[in-house]
Amino acid sequence: MQVTFLGTSSGVPTRARNVSAVALRLPQRSDLWLFDCGEGTQHQFLRSDLRVSQLSRIFVTHMHGDHIFGLPGLLASLGLAGSCDGIDLYGPDPLRDYLEGVMRTSSMRISYPLRTHRVKEAASSGAVLLEDDDISVRCTLLTHRVPAYAYRVEQKPRAGRFDVAQAQALGIPPGPIYAELKAGREVVLEDGRIINGASLCGPERPGCSVVYCTDTVFSEAAVELAQGADLLIHESTFAHAEAEMAFARQHSTSTMAAQTALAAGVKQLMLTHLSPRYMPGNPVTPDDLLEEARAIFPNTELAKDFLSVEVAAAEA
């Protein structure tokens, strides 16, 4: 998976950071998913190397403006481009009403299938929200002033590595038969031998996983959802010194994000959704938030607009 940050500011954009949007690219299937869509997200797409024509799913965490005000413009532009095969939207209950209201009052027309999915039931029951042959998505309810949801995208386990040298040592000629063996199936050779492909493959390899968690104060539900994830993207709206304000506004500090990562045993933490009060040159800067988080969870990095991160699972 490849994660690209298109917006990393909270509340309002700054000169260096737009409001919330994170793109998840699935290269093997030429697919692109978007998490949140703050104002100006389609402009961020234009400034990135991402192809918006590959966009197929949008996941919304909650209904605050800095996470949804970019949706109408992006959806309208996709319709004008004429190259969209359809979009699936996932989010809180009011998401459909919000979009229908915008389309009705602005005479906005969508020329492609637009399907909305409410995530409340999956979040409360622990059921899988979305699943196909390669990927599963789960979500959970966070702790914020309005209903807000975190999402976990997980690649299913992959087949073990095929031992070509061993196959050649057994006298198995290269060709389509190798694909059958790689899939772990039994094949019958011309000389009558029966070869079990599983015996030529190493142990099953885990898939990679990404968790997107914003907006919330420290949440045990987030810790549970993020268990063992390869990458946790977590909001860090405030510095530790402003924990009282964080609790009042139901946002996380840098230390809360790090504590979540530590408790969940994730591989890497990326801090995002930073308050504009921490712009470079101010008494407290983003680097200070990063230092606070690293004191608890060393493998922490600071997200910035247009930063791309490759996510790969550890080998078995």
Structural commentary:
Helix content is about 25%, strand content about 25%. With about 325 residues, the protein is of the alpha/beta class. The strands form 3 sheets. It has a 7-stranded mixed β-sheet. The chain has a 7-stranded mixed β-sheet with strand order 7-8-9-12-13-14-15. Helix 10 packs parallel to helix 11. The longest helix is centred in the first third of the chain and has 12 residues. It is globular.
Quick recap:
The protein has 316 residues and is an alpha/beta fold.
Based on the model shown, name its key terms.
316 residues; alpha/beta; 7-stranded mixed beta sheet; 11 helices; 16 strands
Instruction: Report the radius of gyration as a whole number of Å.
Output: 22 Å
Structural class, by secondary structure, is: alpha/beta
What is the rounded distance between the termini?
A: 18 Å
What form results from the Cα inertia axes?
globular
Would you identify the regions where 5 or more consecutive residues have pLDDT less than 50?
A: none
Which strand order does the major sheet show?
Answer: 6-5-4-3-2-1-16
Write the layout of secondary structure elements.
Elements: E1 2-7, E2 21-26, E3 31-35, H1 41-46, E4 55-59, H2 65-68, H3 71-81, E5 87-91, H4 95-106, E6 114-118, H5 120-125, E7 130-131, E8 135-141, E9 149-155, H6 164-169, H7 176-182, E10 186-188, E11 194-196, E12 209-213, H8 220-225, E13 231-235, H9 243-249, H10 254-264, E14 269-272, H11 286-294, E15 300-302, E16 308-310
Helix pairs in contact: 10-11
